[in-house]
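Predict the assembly for these two chains.
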Amino acid sequence: MWQHPAMKSPYEGVAIVGAYNTVQAKQLPNWTESELILDAMHGALDDAGLRPEDVDGVNVSTWVTKLNSRTVCQWFGGRPTWTGTSHPGVEAVLEAAAAIQSGQAHTVLIATAQCGEYTDRESTVSWTRPENEFVECWGLYTAAEFALMAQRHMHIYGTPRAALSEVASAIRSNGAVNPDAVFYGRECSPAEVEASRMVADPFHLLDCCITSEGGAAMVLTSVERAKDLDVTPIYVLGGALDRQGMSYVTAPVWERYGWVGRRAAEMTFEQCGLSTRDVDFAEFYDPFSFEIIRQLEAFGFCKEGEGADFVLEGRIRIDGELPVATNGGILSFSHAGVAQLLQKPLNAVLQLQGRLAPELTLHEPKVALATNGGSGALFCDVMALGKEPV
Amino acid sequence: MSAPNIPLPRPTTLSKPYWEACQQGRLTVQRCRDCQSYTFIPQACCGACLGSDLEWVESTGRGTLYSFTTVFRPQQPMFEVPYTVVVVELEEGYHMLSNLIGVEPDEVKIGTPLEVAFEKRSDEITLPFFRVRAD
């Protein structure tokens, strides 16, 4: 029997104690971003049982109105001394954890929100279509970028169309029973994925993530302070970044960038002495169905080219051995611009705490992976979270 | 294929030589004088060795279809669908994004030999499309 080496997380002094999603919807016409970010911030602090005066570090931003952390320090009466500068996702959680571990901050609030962005429905949403001079004129946007990766993978390994449909169906089925999901109640079979209209070959509409609006927030503090709170603390076991260039500028070449995130996953596992066998569920970035197959292969859950078999055996479904995107992911739960970055580790926290809908609650999960970014974007960040410290 | 009013490139100091060559019907690429590696898209330094001594050299404009996607939901309404986005692997070994012209979507295959086909879109911009190459 394989055993862990005796290792500790590099963030052993850090606990996640607050996690909160605002309302998520295709559009939130009755909300401003200010209202949404305040709801997110208060929601996460209330969840932790903490008050604003307990916070001494912030990473708070909004997308459209460009709220930033320095301004938010003023809202707190100047008490926060530390501000995070990372995008509000895996990298922000790791940055905040490092700040707490090193004593630069004791309690950090990460929050982000977005609404009022997607108004021109004739075009794809603005964040999907960069204006780069070597990209825009060819009609590219994110679905096409990721499709170029998927096509190459299908060419090399013979990855069948059915595997893509299974991924989209599995994740959308989670969202269908999640009352907080934008697509709550919308069950989706593999046949329905294939019957939906074509967007960018091989991606049909239901292979693609949704666009929506909403906010999210998370509170991290020291393990010592967490002991005084009435919460189930969740631990940051490890994490790393894998950045290989600017997103959506250079050609997405599979042989060069296809395994992006592998280095980050290896470093994550090295840090905490865990392996793929220890992971109970995965909040993988799910912008397009294929990206789940890619991550399973890149991170070593199966061999290169065997991701299709992995998913077709039902293993990523909620009752499978490695449930993926257990809240419905950005295919179904919500894709509120950059808020989706934070919602990956955030949902890992909620799942580890047993706070999802009963149909989605796993049996005593202990270890989760959460990821941001994928092959078409040329970056992929990975982190591991645990119910117990390692 | 794409309509005349698609968003056109706005050349920068770095990319101006590339677009000027396209106007003249020449496909060019940066090459490092130190390590001979090709760099595309235009950069201030070599993408392989960080060397800053780059020269613009002519590419053969010949390559193969590396990957593709036929797009049915346009990026913006002025794009006529379907259109096929390709990654081309040039003979020099570098890759670039383009659109494939003159081929029905269901005939597109990875590995097909391609060649550059310039189309003037404005006084300043001539775009390097690709078409199937008959050997």
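Chain A touches chain B at residues 122-124, 129, 131, 133-141, 143-144, 147-149, 151-152, 155, 197-203, 205, 249-254 (CB under 8 Å). DSSP finds 13 helices and eleven strands in chain A.
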